[in-house]
Specification:
The chain is an alpha+beta fold. It folds into 3 domains: 10-139, MM3350-like (Structural Genomics Hypothetical 15.5 Kd Protein In mrcA-pckA Intergenic Region, Chain A); 146-241; 259-374, no CATH class. The protein contains 15 helices and 7 strands. It has helices at residues 36-46, 141-145, 148-163, 174-194, 198-205, 210-215, 217-223, 227-237, 243-257, 263-274, 278-288, 306-318, 322-336, 340-356, 360-372; strands spanning 10-18, 25-31, 55-58, 69-71, 97-101, 107-118, 127-132. The protein has a 7-stranded antiparallel beta sheet with strand order 4-3-5-6-1-2-7, covered by helices on one side. A hairpin with a 5-residue loop joins β5 (97-101) and β6.
Length: 374
């Protein structure tokens, strides 16, 4: 019996024009495994859009259409761009759709799906094919803001960031981990030599996803035996951005090294985060008996962040406190509300914990209940 050959991966070619300016356009090619968020990043970069703002796509081609809206991570849309893989969307060549950048200024763009191709292994996606014209106020972060010493680093970072899928659970290959390690080392060098004021420039030039990409690395570093590198990454970047997320990642790294010898160090790290959140500290103390004294530096609104609760839940799971971990996972789901992207990230960890503890029936029931929510 002949083995069926695997179908080559598809790509989609899009033509993007600012509304009312058909002669100004960019043509970009993306993989079917990339998402609308990657398309957003490609548009943001190719048109040199400045700043971090709310954005959304409207696949019906109608402005503000709630039935076809896919919003960015911070938008209130029930459907999130990071989970909207291009290969699974009902795109139609005969029906252009809309992209909105900045809900206040309302910068609208028309998008046409003009061609489908086969992916080339040597090509990085998104891939820019052609373009003509500029927006009325052209602004290129690389040319206008970044010093020449940073341009090479940004250009090297972009392929890694744009090809990274935040929704995947598949670990990076040894080659990908080594490439990521080299990029992180280059970041260390630039920030140490040029100063912390380079971080905002690097973050903006790479599409505002640099921190999320860095947060995804410690887990894969540990899997490839790079534990010290994982710890250094968490410690180094915590002062620059997302401090609590990086501290939680460090706790997870410590908990994974040696549950008996490193549990205390891991607990101290997670307590450092939780102590600033009175509600979280009280809950951990009640559920586990770990006494956490709240600090004076309290951020009362942050306990509402589902990612913090999820990281604490994952930490408790790793040190074999499954019952309180389950409660924290459920609290995270409640806080995530209708944010589909966040809910799926939480469920992936929660279900893995249930299955590891031979609770497959409960995992199936959890999936069913989530499907019933729509």
């Amino acid at each position: 019996m002949k083995r069926q050959l695997k179908e080559p991966e598809r790509t989609f070619v899009f033509r993007i024009s600012p509304e009312g300016m058909p002669r100004v356009y960019r043509t970009v090619e993306l993989s079917e495994k990339q998402s609308l968020h990657h398309l957003h990043l490609a548009i943001h970069q190719s048109f040199s859009l400045k700043g971090k703002a709310l954005y959304a796509f409207y696949l019906s081609g109608k402005r503000w259409d709630p039935e076809s809206e896919y919003g960015g991570p911070l938008a209130a849309s029930p459907r999130k761009t990071k989970k909207a893989l291009l290969g699974r969307l009902a795109l139609n060549k005969a029906r252009p759709f809309l992209y909105l950048f900045n809900f206040e200024k309302e910068n609208w763009f028309d998008i046409e799906w003009i061609e489908e191709r086969k992916a080339e292994p040597v090509k990085n996606y998104p891939h820019f094919l052609a373009g003509e014209g500029e927006l009325p106020a052209p602004a290129s972060p690389l040319e206008e803001v970044l010093p020449s010493s940073l341009k090479t680093l940004v250009q090297n970072l972009k392929p890694a960031l744009y090809s990274w899928d935040p929704a995947t659970t598949k670990p990076r290959s040894p080659k990908e981990v080594q490439e990521a390690k080299n990029l992180v080392e280059a970041l260390y060098k630039v920030l140490q030599e040029k100063g912390e004021n380079r971080w905002p420039l690097l973050d903006e030039a790479t599409g505002m996803i640099l921190a999320d990409w860095l947060l995804s690395l410690p887990h894969d570093f540990v899997k490839r035996g790079l534990t010290e590198e994982a710890l250094r990454l968490c410690e180094f970047f915590a002062p620059y951005c997302e401090r609590d997320y990086f501290k939680c990642e460090k706790a997870l790294v410590l908990a994974s090294i040696d549950k008996k010898r490193k549990q205390k160090a891991a607990l101290e790290q997670i307590c450092e985060v939780s102590a600033r959140f009175p509600l979280l500290a009280e809950e951990i103390t009640k559920q586990t008996g770990f006494l956490i004294v709240p600090t004076q530096d309290r951020s009362l609104h942050l306990p509402e962040d589902p990612r913090i609760w999820t990281k604490v839940a994952e930490f408790l799971w790793k040190i074999d406190h499954v019952a309180p971990a389950e409660r924290f996972f459920r609290s995270a789901l409640d806080l995530a509300s209708d944010d589909i992207y966040e809910r799926e990230l939480i469920l992936a960890k929660f279900i893995a914990m249930l299955e590891e503890n031979e609770r497959q029936d409960e995992a199936i029931e959890l999936i069913r209940s989530e499907l019933d929510r729509g």
